[in-house]
Specification:
Blueprint (H helix, E strand, L loop, with lengths): L15 E4 L6 E4 L19 E3 L23 E12 L11 E12 L3 E7 L5 E3 L6 E4 L8 E7 L4 E10 L4 E11 L18 H6 L3 E2 L3 E6 L3 E4 L3 E9 L2 E8 L5 E2 L5 E4 L2 E6 L6 E6 L1 H5 L4 H18 L7 E7 L6 E2 L4 E5 H4 L8 H17 L6 E3 L5 H19 L9 H13 L17 H6 L3 H5 L15 H13 L2 E3 L1 H14 L9 H10 L4 E6 L4 E6 L24 E3 L2 E2 L15 E3 L8 E4 L1 H14 L5 H16 L5 H6 L10 H18 L4 H7 L1 H12 L3 H13 L3 H16 L11 H11 L2 H13 L3 H10 L6 H11 L10 H10 L3 H20 L5 H10 L5 H13 L9 H33 L1
Parallel strand pairs: 1-18, 4-13, 20-21, 21-23, 24-25, 26-31
Antiparallel strand pairs: 1-2, 3-6, 4-5, 5-11, 6-10, 7-11, 8-11, 9-10, 12-17, 13-16, 14-18, 15-16, 19-20, 22-23, 26-27, 28-29, 28-30
The structure holds 2-acetamido-2-deoxy-beta-D-glucopyranose (6 copies) and zinc ion (ZN).
Amino acid sequence: MAKGFYISKNMGLAGLLMGAVAGVVIIALAAVYDKEKTKNQNKPVDGVTTVSPTTSSTLSTPKNPWEYYRLPDSLSPVSYNITLWPRLVVNASTGLYIFTGQSDVVFRCEKETDLILIHCNKLNLTLLSGHRVRLTGLDGATAPNVISSWLQVKTEYLVIQLKGKLAAGKSYRLSTDFQGELADDLKGFYRSEYTEDGVKKVVATSQMQAVFPVTLIHQRGTVALSNGRDVETVNTTIDGAEVTKTRFEPTKRMSTYLLAFIVSDFAHITGSIENNNVLVRIWARRKAIAEGHGYYALNVTGPMLQFYEGYYNASYPLSKSDQIALPDFSAGAMENWGLITYRETALLYDPASSSVGNKETVLTVVAHELAHMWFGNLVTLRWWNDLWLNEGFASYVEYLGADYAEPTWNIKELIILYEVHKVFAVDALASSHPLSRKEEEVNRPDEISEMFNTISYSKVLYGSPCSRPSPTARFYMVLHSYLNEFAFNNTVYSDLWDHLQKAVLTTPGMSLPHTVHDIMNRWILQMGFPVVTIDTATGHITQKHFLLDPDSVVDRPSPYNYTWMVPIKWMKGGVEREQHWLLQETAGSEWVLANLNVSGYYRVNYDTDNWERLINQLTADHTVIPLINRAQIVDDAFNLARAKVINTTLALRTTRYLSQERDYIPWESAIRNLNYYILMFDRGQVYGMLQVGSSYNMIYQTFTVAEVLYNQINAISFACRMGVERCRVLTSVWFREWMLNPDHNPIHPNLKTTVYCNAIAAGGVEEWDFAWTMFKNATVATEAAKLRSALACTKVPWLLNRYLDYSLDPAKIRKQDCTSTISYIAHNVVGMPLAWDFIRARWSYIYTEYGGGSFSFSNLINGVTRRFSTEFELKQLKQFKEDNAGVGFGSGTLALEQAMEKTAANIKWVAENQEQVMNWFSNECT
Ligand SMILES: *[C@@H]1O[C@H](CO)[C@@H](O)[C@H](O)[C@H]1NC(C)=O
Ligand SMILES: *[C@@H]1O[C@H](CO)[C@@H](O)[C@H](O)[C@H]1NC(C)=O
Ligand SMILES: *[C@@H]1O[C@H](CO)[C@@H](O)[C@H](O)[C@H]1NC(C)=O
Ligand SMILES: *[C@@H]1O[C@H](CO)[C@@H](O)[C@H](O)[C@H]1NC(C)=O
Ligand SMILES: *[C@@H]1O[C@H](CO)[C@@H](O)[C@H](O)[C@H]1NC(C)=O
Ligand SMILES: *[C@@H]1O[C@H](CO)[C@@H](O)[C@H](O)[C@H]1NC(C)=O
Ligand SMILES: [Zn+2]
């Protein structure tokens, strides 16, 4: 089952999270530090740096340092000593919820400057009256006086102008006392559920590395957590308030975006890494812990950390590992060093009500975040343009960690579905982008959040000769030397290449035709990937940039002219051959299969005879062909057909053998590809044909008896979707049973998603309202998530419209869930036009309310437009782009371009293939 989310980085969460005593109220405090004196505009700050008037970066050339988004390099922080005290009761004099704090930042001046720039986020922050910014020189340095300070709104800096210069090589301390409001505006600092957050402070702070000694002052009876272990907890009285003061060990040197603080009344369970003193804890709402929902995560964390210690050959860098589930969280999880935050659905598992898919989500998300403790945290990226270095690597390694913890799940095989196919789909568009962007292309917060996309997460390293760790252990040694050299520091991608190259040179018997840099740069500096065409009659092999729409125009120049160095692993007649960089061998009468186990990031096409031989082999005995390749043959064929490289009937024929297939992955691969047909046709007459659908009916039955669990789920859900009557009746009956006795849900956890959806689709307002009530009352997050998606399945337009309205009402649908709810509605064939109208009518509101930098805009646009396949829809899309040019599309900008490109391709595809598809299905029926 698909992972709920794969994005782990909540860019917004740079600062604090706090939960009130009740555990219901979670307060996220984004800013840690600052002072400001402009009246109402005062903002909190969480980074410190200064600027020299000479600034190196960027395209347009603003005159002043504070007009640049990136901080200059004239100052570098050494430590941030932060003390924070959030008040969870209304302040009598101001009528507001407030927090107060103190901050001492020690920084070193690298280049002479008379400016200090401090990045601020959206927090309203005021200096306590009577206090000023205090600048002190250390080690005999003299601090100049402050002339003035102001807030630069656009770039969100607090600018401090000094009377004299700070001297290069000297260190200074900037001290402030501040007070801020715990507003409920969901920006930076907020009360109530944690949801959304601006991105900007991360922009500022990400390249800053320092050490953070932290102290939290909190209400008695609550627990305070931060990155380090608590070293001292004392009860004390401050200004007449009885409080607890918790001091934490200073963090390691790290990026500010990894800092986190939480105050809550949460409970926890404890474990450890075997033979190690590292304290492992899982935190969550008291009730969730009491009901045992944290045990699964705890069970897998110890083994995974132990595995990573061996894999990276580097011990876990901290003294403890806390993981905490928050009722609201905009991303899936965030890898704060030593204090990882999760959505509840990504950390908690309830054996009684959660499905195996939910369990898998917990496993893989935890594996991903823990992998970051080394790759991403111990060694971090220099700038966001190289995000893939963090994310791609963690997205790969998570499968190894997950496999170690659940060795019987064969989870590594799923990489092909979850990562490779997903990224193939977007990277085949002319509007894709290179994995690594130029530093200067990524500046603004929305540009940064746009980097958190499928390509950064999934394209990595597949396809490189060095990336897929070879069993020779060579790769592990590379990682060790890389992590060792750059521990507590940051890198650019070429640092990794250097280490790989060194390994190649020092390994006896290992040689590459080119340097690692030459090979790998082609994969990361140009977008896309090749289709390799093998002519088995002549032995000729050629490559070409694979574009889903062959007529699309690639206007992005590539330094390599869209050619790649492709390592080709292959087999002939069932026998594995030596890897070739070029293949020069004719096949005779034997089939040739290339990209064995899909170790390379490319698609493969063959001459017609070889396609026939492969299809024959699949039918005769598919087990000779490796599992992953069976899935890949189907996926390559369907995509080559979409790109008009082969014909559609050939692609459809690769699915015939599936009636003998018992494994999940090839089935899932076929279903995902057939889903495209359904999306293209479910509003037209061909759909009737698909439904009558024939051979597929038979397939579903085979499917239903299949032992593989995911196949059963797939079979039932696909059969229902295709309108199989028995399926509709069955799901409705089960659901009705539940409605009659709401305290006893008779539906198996693994089937809930499908049953809920189909029963609501077949039902009316009664079913819908019941599901809504159950959604509102759900105390387990995974259960709520299933109901929320099922509510979008109704075919009743007014219910869908009402649900759309609910999606923008935070009292009904949490802000974190707004865009995915709209996407669910759009996935429904009846809901799609309603959702599209809804978005068009309210774009500016949604954009403002939910933040242009928010991640989910690309998902929203993808979700709503995935069915688009008519000229009229393309026109509407263009109009939409034009109409809202003034508002903007933020992190959805690229998605909008992709949507237009995909729509254009769909229009052509439907025109060209409708008849072939209809014929094929009607022939298969008879
Ligand atoms: C916080 O700042 C915003 C904009 O700067 C302003 O609209 C709002 O009224 C402020 N809130 C408070 C409570 O001062
Ligand atoms: C940090 O600041 C607090 C409060 O000002 C102080 O008590 C503490 O000693 C400081 N810690 C360090 C490591 O400077
Ligand atoms: C502080 O006070 C709380 C509640 O009054 C109590 O439970 C806790 O044990 C005290 N802690 C210390 C370190 O005295
Ligand atoms: C956690 O591990 C224990 C001990 O092996 C086992 O009894 C328990 O069922 C596991 N819990 C979960 C939720 O996997
Ligand atoms: C970080 O790495 C750079 C080289 O990339 C090096 O110059 C610098 O000294 C390192 N800093 C630390 C603190 O290790
Ligand atoms: C780039 O590739 C295209 C097509 O493969 C070819 O026509 C063109 O000459 C190449 N250009 C360069 C500069 O190599
Ligand atoms: Zn990640």
